[in-house]
Amino acid sequence: MNIKKNDTVIVLSGKDKGVKGKVLVAMPAENKVIVEKVNVATCHTKPRRQGETGGIVKRETPIRACKVALFCEKCGKGVRVAHKIVDGKKTRVCCKCGAEL
């Protein structure tokens, strides 16, 4: 999985197709990511402690990592990722333009 926390991604398919957002959580074991303002579900919560309020809360739920692509600022669209070794470090670069991601 080439997507990490704090990456900017674009959704490729589903009800939120075309939406850009920041990755909040990456779950490589399940091959899922949680993206800001994507796949929002309404959850009804109960107050757990005295003084706490319950109610209806909107929260982001996980989406499959194959449904999102890394967003390249230079290209302006979702791109595939290539890897290059620069100064002994492995870095991610855009396959189309070669910009570092």
Provide structural commentary.
The chain is built from no helices and 10 strands. With 101 residues, it is mainly β. The strands form 3 sheets. The protein has a 6-stranded antiparallel beta sheet, with no helix packed on it. It has a two-stranded antiparallel sheet with strand order 4-5. Strand 7 and strand 8 form a beta hairpin.
List the helices and strands and how they pair.
Layout: E1 8-11, E2 20-27, E3 32-35, E4 40-45, E5 55-60, E6 63-64, E7 68-72, E8 77-79, E9 81-86, E10 89-94
Antiparallel strand pairs: 1-2, 1-7, 2-3, 3-6, 4-5, 7-8, 9-10
Gist of the model:
With 101 residues, this protein is mainly β. The chain is 0% helix and 50% strand.
Which terms summarize this structure?
single chain, 101 residues, mainly beta, six-stranded antiparallel beta sheet, two-stranded antiparallel sheet, 50% strand, elongated
Shape: elongated
Enumerate the spans where pLDDT stays under 50 for 5 or more consecutive residues: none
- Biggest pleated sheet: 6 strands, antiparallel
In helices, the fraction of residues equals under 10%
Oligomer: single chain
Note the gap between the termini: 15 Å
Q: What is the ordering of alpha helices and beta strands? A: EEEEEEEEEE
Number of strands: 10
Can you list the strand order of the major beta sheet?
6-3-2-1-7-8
What Rg do the Cα atoms give? 17 Å
Mean of pLDDT: 94
- The secondary structure category is mainly beta
Number of helices: 0
Strand content: over 45%
